Amino acid sequence: MPAPAVRYTSPDEDSARWLGFAFRDGDIVISTRSKTGTTWVQMICALLIFGTPELPAPLAELSPWLDHLVAPQDEVFAQLAAQRHRRFIKTHTPLDGLPADPRVTYIVTARHPLDMAVSLYYQGDNIDRVKLAELTGQDPPSGPARPRRTVHDWLLDWIAADDDPVEWPDSLPGVLRHIGQAWSRRDEPNVLLVHYADLLAGLEGQMRWLAARLGLTVPGPAWPALVRAATFEGMRGHANDLVPTAGLFRSNAAFFRRGSSGEGREVLSEEELTSYAERVAVLAPAAMLAWLHR
Length: 294
Hints:
Rossmann fold, single chain, alpha/beta, globular, about 45% helix
């Protein structure tokens, strides 16, 4: 199995944990950037695999975040080794940081970058930084919190920043690099590219497409309940069972804040949107950008 080309690290993630993981035939790896539909696709996979809206355990137990440092590696590996259902594992690591295994299906999610960034901005207010430091063994933040810039000013800086996409994968260059890796491999049978806007526009169709690509059979009478459970309203109503890390967020319900498209474009003026278009045009191929921004 080829080793990953790149190692991604942050204060609370380390993609090197994948090096010691034993894959099984049929494993599903959900590779996403933050706030691009990670929990949504995990929920869809859970519903398709178990065939019922009544999941047997919280989503984070059924679909662990393998490279998140809030849980010891041995504990996460043992949890996954004990699973007897088809495994579906979460990561924010791009494809070049993951072992390439032909037995595994890799699902990469994409969302309009401006919408993703605005959602990321608001999630920053919902994270309990003291709790995060405690879970990852870091020193807690000290001193008074600095006032945050407005979402408009923060978004303009996010668009303009020329960050290293490996060091800052949630930057604009990092987001486009992550999606671009899947875009270039989208014709491979075990790489599936899912667009947030497609889930919004035709949830049942996307769920049926994923079931077919994953080789999962769902009895006809089960579909209406599964689709209802996968709606944004359905997930928000079960937020305590679906949030990624127990205790990390000030409000579990606020994790499912809006669940729509277009908010990023609402924040910016026409001139600023033109500058954004010029910026992304030098970072990614035109065909991918047309698909991503539709």
